Amino acid sequence: MPETEKSNPVISKVEEKTTNSAVAVAGHPLHAMTVHFPIALVIATLAADVMFWWNGDSFWTRAALWASGGAFFSGIGAGLIGTAELLLVSGIRARVASWAHGIAAMSLIAVAGANWGGRVTESIAVLPHGLGLSLLASVLTGLAGWHGGKLIFDHGIGLMVSPKD
């Protein structure tokens, strides 16, 4: 850590706050365990849309419908757990990356919901609207993931470190 950060009283105060997970099973944070599902399903929705664009087989529209629904509903679950962590743990709340991650993730859930809702009600066409929403959801997934990674790798949020380490 640079010398200027070590002597910064604001950073020192933030680093004093606990970052232990409040929503965990046997010490393992549930948010970190649940985010994989919406991430994979957002990417699967984009892949199915691209495949439909490429070959026009209606199988891909059904696959994207199911994947987008799964992304939305699993995203709600991961988002609820993440929101609980944000609100319950002061050391998480004190970090800017937490808020950036949360805003990007909530935006992602909204876009995933619009993507699924438009498909299930047949109010949007896969091309171009569904594909556009899938691209936007993928970009938001990358943005939320970037800030989530900063929380883990730069701030140690959600890491269990053994006393032996």
From TrEMBL:
UniProt KW Ion transport keyword: no
Q: Does the keyword Membrane apply?
A: yes
Q: Which InterPro entries match?
A: DUF2231_TM
Write out the transmembrane intervals. Answer: 35-54, 66-89, 96-118, 124-146
What keywords does the record list, in alphabetical order?
A: Membrane, Transmembrane, Transmembrane helix
DUF2231 domain location is 27-158
Descriptive protein name: DUF2231 domain-containing protein
